[in-house]
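--- STAGE predict ---
source: upstream dedup step, 1 unique chain passed
mode: sequence only
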Amino acid sequence: MRDHIPITLSRKSPARVLEMAFERPDFAVLCFYFFTLSWTNMITFPGLGSLLQITGIALVLVASYVVIRRSFNVYLTEFHILYAGFLFWCAITLVWSKNIEWSALHIVTSVKILVLLLAVWQITRSKSDYWVLAQAYVFGGWVTVVNSVITLQNSTQLSLPYGKVAQLAMQGRITSAGYDPNFLSLILAASLPIAIYLAAHLSRGILKWINWLYIPAVWYAILLTGSRGGLIVSIFASMSVLFVIDWRKFYAWINPIAFGFAAVVIVVNAIPPKTQERLGGLADELAYGGWSSRLLIWDTSWNVFWENVIGGVGIGMFRWESLLFINRQLDTHNLLLTVLVETGVIGFVFFLILIFSMLRTILCSKDDDRFIWLWVFATIGIGSLSITMLTYPPVWSLLALVLGGVAFSSSSKNNKNVERRV
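--- STAGE serialize ---
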C-alpha cells in the first residue's frame, strides 16, 4: 500500500504519541474529536453544553488557526462545495416553511456540520492521518461498549435514574444517554469494517488484539440496543471480513472464526431475554408487520410530498406536517425520503449529486484500501434507509473520514493540491 503507515503499539509509542501531540496539537484535537464521536452526547456540562459541542468548537478554533497561518488559504473539495450548494437550497426553503424558527434551527445545525467537515480537511495532511483517526474512532467505541455494559447492569439492579434511558431499558433496549438506540447502533456498525481492516492489515502486537476483540464487543453493544435495523446493518458491515482476509492462508481463518464463535456465545448467554425476543421478531416484522410503524410513516411522507413536489415543505418541517395526517410528530425514518419531502425535487437532485460525487471519488481511488471505505459508505447508506440523519454530526463526520481516506490518492483528486498540503 503506497501511503499506509502501519499503526503499531510498542514501548516507544507513548513517547511518540506525546511528541506528535506537541508537534501537531491541531491533529491531537482532531483525534480526540473522533475518539469521542460515538459517546460524546453522554456527557453534558452545565452552562457549556454537550461534549460534542465543546470538542466541535475546539476543532473549529484550531482549524481556523491553521487557516490563518496559511494566510487564509482554505482547502476545499468538490464535496464541500456541493454540500454548501445543498445547504443554500435548504436555506431558501425557509421562505415557505410553516415554522421558520424550527427550520432555521436545522439550517444552523447544517452550517455547523459544514464547518466541521471543512475543519477536518484543513488539519489533515496525508492518508495515514485518516487511518490514525479511524483508530481513534475504534478506541472511542470501547467507551460506548463499557457504558452499555454498565447501563445493562444498572437496569437489572433497577438503579437507573428515571428518564428515557430507563424507559428504553424496560423495553429491552440498552442505549446511552443522549443517543437513540437506532442511531447508536448505526454509528457503531460503521466502525466494524474499519476495525476489521485495522486488525487484519494495519496494526500489530497488542493493538491488533485490541482491534480483533473490539469486533465481538461492539456487536454486543449493538445487540443490546435492540435495534432490528441496526442488526441488519451490522450483518452487512461484518461481511466485509469476507473480502479483507486472505482466506488462502490457513492462519487467516483463526481470528475471524474464534471471534465469530465468541459473538455467538455472547448472543446466547449475555443478551437479556426481552432484547432477544425483540430481535427475534425481525423476520415476522419484515414479512407481516408494519416495520415499527415505518410503513405508515412512509405512506404519510409520500402524501406530504405530492402536495409540495417542487420545493418541499421546508427543511425540518415533516414533523409538523405529520401532525395534520396522523396526529403525531414523527421523522420519516428514511434519509432520502426526508430530503425529498422537505426540500422537494430540486433539493433531492442537489443531494443526489452530492452523494454520487462522493461515490465517484471512492471508486476512482487507486489504493488498496478503497474497498473498505466503500464498505463504510455503503453501511451508512443502508442504515440511512430506516433512520433520519440529515442533521446528525457524527454520521457526517464519518463521511468526512471516508472522503479523506480516498481523496489523497484518488485519480479524481488534483495531485498538485495534494502535494502542497503535505
